[in-house]
Write a structure and sequence with these properties.
The protein has 6 helices and 8 strands. It is an alpha/beta fold.
């Protein structure tokens, strides 16, 4: 169950050297970070990392936040051992790097993780959230995977799946007004296509003044005026999961 007294324990993420409350496990051919709530739970959320990979402290912090709200959380290595992007890398090589890491080629890994959650963790209802690259992966899964109940795509790269909008499950799309990677025209077009083609519940929300990555950014990186929107995005994410899981 969700922790109603503290629906969004954002203070955990204050420490720059955040290490995580969970543990790393091997799930068949995939490494994964898993965190479980203190009380038994039958609801789980798969957390899909961004280009910086499954070990990014910010992403693990978000997984732990889900746990504090009563969910089993798992963040698998969807790059399956391939190196995550580093800020020191040459951005001129980014497109070549991306070609070997397709956000639509994660179905095999998702099936393995779903089996683990059901058989090893006792999960009966499973949702998914993802950031940037992972947000696009959420959209992909919401279009085709019948075993997931709901998804939250946080600044998912629209151009990866921009021509597909017939979602199978309720999906919440979080975008930043000043995202240099996702122009607002793309968001508007996505909304139009969802309106035309989507037969399940969905929501598209743009957070004023925010930039790419704002929801899972640490406080050391933000301006005070951004903090309310970061906290709002996190609460919105939890509320959506609470509603559909």
């Amino acid at each position: 169950m969700a922790n109603e007294s503290r629906p969004c324990p954002c203070d955990i993420g204050d420490r720059f050297d955040y290490g995580g409350l969970g543990q790393e496990v091997q799930v068949e051919h995939i490494k994964a970070y898993v965190c479980k709530p203190p009380a038994s739970a039958d609801k789980a959320v798969i957390v899909i990392h961004d280009i910086f990979g499954w070990q990014l402290p910010n992403t693990r912090y978000m997984a732990d936040m889900l746990t504090t709200n009563g969910y089993i959380a798992i963040c698998p290595d969807f790059f399956v051992g391939q190196e995550a992007w580093k800020l020191s890398n040459d951005w001129a090589s980014f497109n070549d790097w991306l070609k070997t890491r397709n956000a639509g080629n994660i179905d095999k890994e998702v099936d393995v993780v779903l089996k683990y959650l059901r058989e090893q963790c006792g999960a009966k209802k499973i949702g998914v959230i993802g950031f940037c690259w992972g947000g696009a992966a959420v959209q992909h899964l919401m279009l085709k995977n019948p075993h997931l109940k709901t998804g939250v795509s946080l600044y998912g790269v629209i151009r990866f799946f921009e021509d597909r909008s017939s979602l199978l499950h309720p999906t919440f799309f979080i975008f930043a007004e000043k995202d240099e990677h996702i122009p607002l025209e793309q968001v508007t077009l996505l909304e139009q296509k969802l309106k035309q083609n989507c037969k399940v519940d969905y929501e598209v929300k743009i957070y004023p003044g925010q930039t790419h990555g704002f929801v899972h950014r640490k406080r050391e990186d933000i301006n005070p005026q951004d903090k309310p929107y970061i906290e709002e995005g996190r609460k919105d994410m939890i509320n959506w999961l609470n509603k559909y899981l």
